[in-house]
Design goal:
The complex is a heterodimer. By secondary structure, chain A is α/β, with parallel strands linked by helices. In chain A, about 40% of the residues lie in helices and about 15% in strands. The chains are: A alpha/beta, B alpha/beta.
Chain lengths: ~375, ~250
């Protein structure tokens, strides 16, 4: 039994129709409940909930403070490689794009780690394209072993792997894995992913089951907003999360809401989510899952991030560079010929930390210990 | 005076360091509470750094540290974390928190018992966070824990003493101090726990997330004192019925 079987029973169009048929009464009912069902989540992301945004935000903020306190966790992504053998029409790393390809050597990795540690980060997210020949399990493993002494918490966002590979990487110090389905619409997925192993929708969908079976501490799920109707994709992601939580109950979960932004290539989003709707989505997730980590990246503007961070967000990246080797040059804005997507909030970490404090929250740099991973 | 292992405490209010908006507010609130034993999550502090913004102020103010193993999912991880803490912080006090369930953070009784047995043998003063389970408390006592810490309701829920009857059984049976931990949402909850005979309470979220944490810390301090006084003074029995007449036995007086 995996999520795939359950997923195959969900009809995309019926789900979409169900969201759009929600009424004000459904929304009020959801707002008055303390433990929400998936159907109540649908009400909160529906157009009928738009007039209730302020009430949702109030409740979302209160739940977040109660659970996570007056804190906000910071992390930084480290791009190890932009080599990729996939063609994904929306991604800057896509095989056909004429960008300079680079994979960090161990000495370059040390320089990146030194630059990151200097900024104060203790939680790190390792990112690669999908090029198993160059950046396969062996490469990731040697990176983990090399950087483990320098960080309290290490996550990866790389190609989906087998359960045994995850177990190997966990032994080498891996704490968490982020794997986004991009879109849960099977036929749209096919149109976006034209070449490479990523074409295998089912293998990707079952990744979090493999992670759960491996006993990983944390799994990040989500959809890439813009590829398909954002409401239906989010409803699918929420169903996925609901399943995972019940099945792998020892694991923690994080959700993010990446919105497509301009990148190398000519791709434009099919479904556009407004700022207002993104806030609605964030609050709906918080009301649905008070314990989930909600993460917001530097794809979003400084203004949007500062205003949204008290409402339900628990985790944020800062000063991200999306090209390999970006921190050691201290040149996150340069080298546009190497990057995956351009970032909007490019403030330095101490500036982001100050903005968090100004909202009455404590920026947290360390909230894990490698002694819980052995 | 309350005695736990080799330490005595004038204050029966224990506090924590999580969820505060900054370390200044945290320090002020803890000092205002009068608390002499403060718990902090090992995962949040940098053990190699005395300037750590949680550890620094605690050490500076000579507060007794109660490192906790929050994040551990089994006995082995908790034991390892406790050893790290003892080595780095120089205290043999440890609060065992093993919650494999990251949602409600409910404690695993089996792993907790295992960890407590090992750590007690190693000379730790072990304070386990547990469900309000009277039998488990006796088992823990047998393996040598320094106190037991049954929950009032899930951590951070502010729901109060939902386990009151079970805590009363624990208090009645226990030969080690009983510290009610988790779920205490308001000073009246803390007072109630003390009135029914708890030896101490541990309060964190309700202080840290209050609009004014320092004022709330004072409120808890006073509630704990009042509750303890009421307990030692001896509460009168409660009854809704007036005791004036005895309709069933009045004939005996005729």
């Amino acid at each position: 039994m995996s999520f795939l079987e359950r997923f195959n029973q969900i009809n995309w169009d019926e789900l979409k129709m169900s969201i759009h048929s929600k009424t004000a009464a459904d929304v009020q009912h959801a707002l008055n409940s303390s433990r929400l069902t998936h159907d109540q989540f649908l009400a909160l992301i529906s157009p009928a909930a738009e007039p209730y945004l302020e009430a949702m935000a109030q409740k979302s903020m209160a739940l977040t403070r109660q659970r996570f306190g007056n804190t906000l966790q910071l992390f930084i992504p480290l791009y190890l490689s932009n080599k990729c053998t996939n063609i994904c029409t929306y991604c800057g790393f896509s095989l056909g794009n004429k960008i300079r390809r680079k994979t960090l050597k161990m000495e370059e990795l040390d320089q990146e780690v030194a630059a990151i540690k200097k900024m104060g980060f203790d939680h790190i997210l390792l990112v690669t394209g999908e090029a198993p020949g160059t950046v396969g399990v062996e490469y990731i493993k040697s990176v983990l072993e090399r950087i483990r002494p320098h960080f309290s918490h290490i996550s990866i966002e790389v190609q989906p792997l087998d359960q045994a590979d995850y177990e190997t990487l966990m032994t080498a110090g891996l704490d968490a894995v982020l794997v986004y389905q991009e879109t849960y619409n099977r036929s749209a997925y096919k149109e976006y992913h034209l070449r490479g192993s990523k074409m295998d929708f089912d293998y990707r969908l079952e990744t979090s089951d493999r992670l759960g079976k491996a006993g990983i501490d944390k799994i990040g799920v989500g959809a890439l907003i813009g590829l398909e109707d954002w409401r239906t994709d989010s409803a699918m992601a929420a169903a996925h999360l609901d399943y995972l939580e019940k099945t792998y109950w020892r694991t923690r979960y994080s959700i993010s809401f990446p919105r497509l932004r301009p990148c190398e290539g000519e791709f434009q989003p099919v479904s556009v989510i407004s700022d207002r709707q993104l806030v609605q989505l964030i609050c709906a997730y918080r009301l649905f899952k008070p314990e989930a980590e909600l993460s917001l990246s530097t794809r979003e503007s400084a203004k949007f991030r500062d205003n949204v961070l008290p409402l339900g967000i628990t985790t944020m990246s800062a000063y991200s560079s999306t090209h390999p080797g970006g921190y050691a040059d201290d040149n996150i804005l340069g080298n546009e010929d190497l990057e995956q997507f351009s970032i909007d909030d490019n403030r330095r970490p101490e500036v982001v930390a100050k903005a968090i404090q100004e909202r009455g929250l404590e920026p947290v740099w360390k909230d894990w210990s490698p002694c819980f991973n052995h | 005076m309350l005695k736990i292992a080799d330490k005595t405490f004038a204050s029966r209010l224990f506090t924590g360091t999580g969820k505060f908006s900054n370390s200044l507010v945290m320090t002020e609130a803890i000092l205002a509470s009068g608390s002499e034993l403060v718990t902090m999550a090992l995962k949040r502090v940098d053990l190699n750094e005395q300037q750590d913004n949680i550890l620094g102020p605690l050490i500076e103010n000579n507060l007794n540290l109660l490192p906790n193993t929050s994040g551990a999912r089994n006995a082995d991880e908790a034991i390892y974390a406790a050893q790290l803490a003892r080595e780095a912080l120089g205290t043999h006090f440890v609060k065992i928190e093993i919650h494999p369930d990251p949602k409600y953070l409910l404690p695993d009784p089996i792993e907790t018992l295992k960890a407590c047995e090992t750590l007690s043998k190693m000379g730790f003063a072990v304070l386990p966070y547990i469900h309000a389970d009277p039998v488990l408390c006796k088992r823990l006592e047998e393996v040598g824990v320094a106190a037991v810490m049954p929950l009032g309701s899930p951590i951070g829920s502010n729901l109060g003493l939902r386990t009151k009857e079970f805590i009363q059984i624990i208090i009645e049976q226990s030969s080690v101090p009983v510290v009610v931990d988790a779920g205490i949402g308001s000073p009246s909850d803390a007072a109630l726990a003390m009135e029914i005979g708890a030896d101490a309470v541990l309060v964190n979220s309700a202080i840290a997330v209050a609009r004014d944490p320092v004022e709330m810390a004072i409120a808890f301090k006073e509630a704990v004192i009042a509750g303890r006084r009421a307990y030692t003074a001896g509460l009168g029995a409660r009854s809704l019925q007036a005791k004036a007449s005895s309709p069933l036995t009045a004939f005996l007086d005729d």
